[in-house]
Design brief:
This protein is mainly α. The chain is built from three helices and no strands. It has one domain: Aminopeptidase. Helices cover 39% and strands 0% of the residues. α1 crosses α3. This is Iaa-amino acid hydrolase ilr1-like.
Length: 115
């Protein structure tokens, strides 16, 4: 097996501008007290390869619900998701995209370019 067949995983490092965007929009939707920075972990993540090409931010939506027993990590064989979080996750992703695109459009308009 040749090393080039399996390249080493780069570090997953969030772009600071995108990170601030997620923090701001997440706070607008969920309240800033509900937007938290996760602990750093030593693990491989395919997303890091995308970040080598384009700035990005990796984030998660909180899914823990102790009343339902949804307390296990996604890599656990006991994992299951509290499906009530799915509309919240969809709303966060939608708002992130809509606000980002709106702000990019406004930025282009301020510079005097037509879109």
């Amino acid at each position: 097996m040749m090393q080039s067949e399996y390249p080493a995983y780069p570090a997953t490092v969030n772009d600071e501008v995108k990170h601030e965007h997620v923090k701001r929009v997440g706070g607008m939707l969920l309240g800033s007290e509900n937007v938290k920075v996760a602990k750093k972990v030593m693990a491989g993540e395919d997303f890091a390869f995308y970040q080598e090409v384009i700035p990005g931010v990796m984030f998660g939506i909180g899914i823990r619900n102790e009343q339902l027993g949804a307390v296990h990590s996604p890599h656990s064989p006991y994992f299951f998701i509290d499906e009530d979080v799915l509309p919240i996750g969809a709303a966060v992703h939608t708002a992130l995209a809509e606000i980002y695109l709106h702000e990019q459009h406004e930025s282009v308009n301020r510079r005097g370019h037509s879109v």
